[in-house]
């Protein structure tokens, strides 16, 4: 279907979904820690806005709760915790060299194309207004993984991890209007606990290897020479 | 129904109770007591299911049938024996490694938390909650792996956290896809993740979407099972964490992850009407089995070595569940049980052996039989059992899997037998000098409670000589559930 044939609401949802994907690319290219956390927070904000719009358009009131949860957890609480940790660990001014930045972005772009390919069978089955965003949600998941692979700082990897969670939430929302509430609450709880644990970890890591560079974690290997 | 709720509520309460008890000696005993009560309740639950058949709670949140109830009991039993072992072991660790009281409170509290997450994963009827509980089990254990705070331990815990976190994220995506497929077939949305509803309507689910979902779920839960090539976290987490953790990770967590995979396979098989899910599991299983067997030879750390043995056995079980069919399924269920019992017994013994020698390095552990005969013999008998010697139970289950392979995939028995031989050689070339030979200077016996080990190995022996009637009936019921027909 042509883009202009869609209703204005559908177009708005697609636009918002695209912005969410765009924040993933910003994260991929952002070498400084604090702006990276901000980009992650913005992803949470746009995700919450998208969810709220879908809730309004499709008249699914339970999605307002999901939107509120996303806003509180992904856009405010977790970024705030990460920011505070970065300041306390004195890494908030660090710049992380992104190796092969253009290659990374190119890889990201191909992942988006790949997501559209993976989503074909799902999109064909779906009649929801949000079906065109399914591929985008898969792309957000894959880009989160790419972020984890390309970064060496523990805190950037955590942001990648949380961004994967964003993508998963997004995919559940656009493909089925959200999972049952019990499951969603459980997942949100797990994410929160994980965020707290990551914080504890940063301190353990600094205590034991004096750095948050994951590259320094290289003592365990299969056979020592 | 009360029994099911108690199985969950006792460890849940245990999390809080253990967090409050600062007195180390008391904490060890309370942990044992809580685990003992959990075990008693799980036996009660097993008796109820044995008499009345499958249970579905009125809210349909919990579902117990022959397949998961024996895992609930097994989990509670290994939880109890490991708690008994952990009491003197952790006291020794506190004395030698300077672990503070706070960390021991964390340890005990998370021990119960882990048990809670496992029982929740086993008893829930909701595929989504199953995911939440699996992730919860990871979160509960991740700080325990880094308990010693050495750089290696922190590295192992980080790997465990990140790899399992990302891996299991794929399983969540698979669950979303499952929900997507089920939502259109099931009248009420909130029912679409309930396992019994999914199972009943499996034939109507869209095959393409379910294939995609299964691939994601296989990768996701497969990471947790430790399937090659997603196994990297497993040897690290096992070797660097405290030994009771290794015992319950190997003995229980891997089982529960495989349980999740098999439950999903049951749905996918119903929808696909083809063996695709089984073929995928067979491939991954066989690969893990062969690769882990080879890696056994190259290990220098005793706990690492046995964690590779866990990968090998999980691979064999995945393979067997993949073949499907009554005999293979029966063999896999039996193997799950005997592997849990044997492997947790071995890790208990290995823990004591490492304390005696003051190191985990295979080259430095020597002459255990002379220093402390119970530990030496325990390690030897445990290894004989896990290597699949008759008359131990592992032999029986491996034999059944071989028979099933011979029947449906004759040419696959060759790699299977070769793999078994490789693994056997790998274990014994390392074990032999550790057990026999002259002990080095300065090795002194430690305070060890070998009773749980004896009981567990006794059970494995019993299962090898004759599977007791109530247990075989149980396995048969579970086999009928999974594969649709009875093994005999």
From TrEMBL, chain A:
Which GO cellular component terms, listed alphabetically, does the Swiss-Prot or TrEMBL entry include? Answer: plasma membrane
Membrane topology category: Multi-pass membrane protein
Q: Where can this protein be found? A: Cell membrane
Q: What is its main location?
A: membrane
| Parts of the chain that traverse the membrane | 12-29, 36-57, 63-82, 103-123, 129-149, 158-179, 185-203
Which terms does the record give in the GO molecular function aspect?
Answer: lyase activity
Q: What is this protein called?
A: Formate hydrogenlyase
Judging by the UniProt lineage, the source's domain of life is: Bacteria
Alphabetized, the UniProt keywords read: Cell membrane, Lyase, Membrane, Transmembrane, Transmembrane helix
TrEMBL record, chain B:
Got a GO cellular component term for this one? plasma membrane
Any keyword Iron-sulfur?
A: no
Positions of the NADH:quinone oxidoreductase/Mrp antiporter transmembrane domain: 125-416
First-listed, main subcellular location of the protein, grouped into a coarse class: membrane
Segments crossing the lipid bilayer? 6-22, 29-50, 62-85, 106-122, 128-148, 160-182, 202-223, 244-264, 276-296, 316-338, 374-396, 408-428, 449-471
Keywords recorded for this protein, A-Z = Cell membrane, Membrane, Oxidoreductase, Transmembrane, Transmembrane helix
The record's Gene Ontology biological-process terms are: ATP synthesis coupled electron transport
Instruction: State if Oxidoreductase is listed as a keyword.
Output: yes
Spell out the protein name for this chain.
Oxidoreductase
Species in which this protein is naturally found: Sulfuricaulis limicola
């Amino acid at each position: 279907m042509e883009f202009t044939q869609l209703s204005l609401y559908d177009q708005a949802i697609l636009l918002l979904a695209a912005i969410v994907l765009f924040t993933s690319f910003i994260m991929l290219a952002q070498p400084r820690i604090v702006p990276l956390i901000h980009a992650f927070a913005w992803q949470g904000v746009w995700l919450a806005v998208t969810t709220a719009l879908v809730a309004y358009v499709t008249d699914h009131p339970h999605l307002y709760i999901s939107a509120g949860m996303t806003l509180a957890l992904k856009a405010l609480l977790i970024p705030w915790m990460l920011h505070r940790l970065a300041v306390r660990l004195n890494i908030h001014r660090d710049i992380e060299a992104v190796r092969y930045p253009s290659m990374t972005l190119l890889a990201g772009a191909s992942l988006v194309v790949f997501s559209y390919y993976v989503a074909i069978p799902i999109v064909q089955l779906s009649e929801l207004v949000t079906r065109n965003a399914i591929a985008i949600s898969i792309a957000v998941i894959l880009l989160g993984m790419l972020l984890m692979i390309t970064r060496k700082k523990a805190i950037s990897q955590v942001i990648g991890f949380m961004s994967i969670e964003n993508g998963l939430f997004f995919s559940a929302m656009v493909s089925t209007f959200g999972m049952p509430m019990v499951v969603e609450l459980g997942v949100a709880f797990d994410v929160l606990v994980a965020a707290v644990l990551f914080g504890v970890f940063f301190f353990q890591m600094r205590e034991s290897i004096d750095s948050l560079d994951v590259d320094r974690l290289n003592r365990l290997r299969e056979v020592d020479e | 129904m009360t029994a099911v709720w108690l199985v969950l509520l006792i460890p849940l309460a245990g999390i809080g109770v253990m967090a409050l008890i600062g007195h180390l000696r008391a904490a060890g005993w309370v942990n044992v007591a809580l685990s003992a009560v959990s075990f008693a309740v799980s036996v009660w639950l097993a008796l109820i299911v044995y008499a009345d058949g499958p249970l579905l709670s009125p809210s349909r949140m919990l579902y117990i049938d022959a397949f998961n109830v024996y895992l609930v009991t097994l989990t509670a039993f290994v939880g109890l024996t490991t708690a008994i072992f952990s009491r003197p072991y952790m006291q020794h660790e506190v004395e030698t490694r300077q672990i503070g009281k706070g960390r021991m409170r964390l340890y005990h509290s998370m021990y119960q938390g882990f048990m809670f997450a496992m029982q929740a994963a086993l008893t829930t009827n909701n595929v989504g909650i199953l995911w939440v509980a699996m992730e919860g089990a990871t979160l509960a254990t991740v700080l325990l792996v880094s308990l010693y705070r050495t750089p290696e331990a922190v590295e192992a815990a980080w790997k465990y956290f990140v790899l399992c976190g990302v891996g299991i994220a794929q399983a969540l995506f698979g669950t979303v896809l499952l929900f997507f497929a089920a939502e259109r077939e099931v009248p009420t949305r909130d029912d679409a993740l309930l396992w019994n509803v999914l199972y009943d309507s499996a034939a109507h689910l869209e095959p393409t979407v379910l294939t995609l979902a299964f691939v994601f779920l296989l990768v996701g839960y497969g990471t947790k099972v430790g399937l090659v090539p997603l196994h990297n976290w497993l040897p690290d987490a096992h070797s660097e964490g405290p030994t009771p953790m290794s015992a319950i990770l190997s003995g229980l967590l891997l089982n529960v992850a495989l349980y999740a995979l098999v439950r999903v396979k049951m749905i996918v098989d119903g929808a696909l009407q083809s063996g695709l899910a089984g073929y995928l599991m067979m491939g991954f299983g066989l690969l893990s089995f062969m690769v882990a067997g080879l890696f056994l030879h190259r290990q220098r750390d005793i706990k690492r070595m046995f964690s590779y043995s866990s990968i090998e056995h999980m691979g064999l079980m995945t393979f067997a569940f993949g073949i499907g069919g009554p005999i293979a399924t029966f063999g896999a269920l039996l193997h799950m049980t005997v592997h849990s019992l044997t492997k947790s017994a071995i890790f208990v013994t290995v823990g004591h052996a490492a304390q005696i020698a003051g190191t985990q390095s295979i080259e430095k552990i020597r002459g255990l039989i002379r220093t402390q005969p119970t530990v030496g013999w325990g390690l030897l008998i445990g290894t004989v059992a896990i290597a699949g010697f008759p008359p131990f139970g592992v032999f029986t289950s491996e034999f059944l899997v071989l028979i099933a392979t011979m029947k449906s995939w004759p040419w696959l028995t060759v790699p299977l037998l070769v793999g078994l031989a490789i693994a056997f050689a790998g274990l014994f070339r390392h074990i032999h000098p550790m057990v026999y030979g002259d002990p080095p200077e300065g090795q002194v016996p430690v305070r060890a409670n070998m009773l749980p080990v004896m009981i567990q190995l006794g059970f494995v022996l019993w299962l090898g000589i004759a599977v007791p009637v109530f247990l075989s009936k149980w396995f048969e019921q579970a086999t009928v559930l999974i594969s649709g027909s009875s093994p005999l």
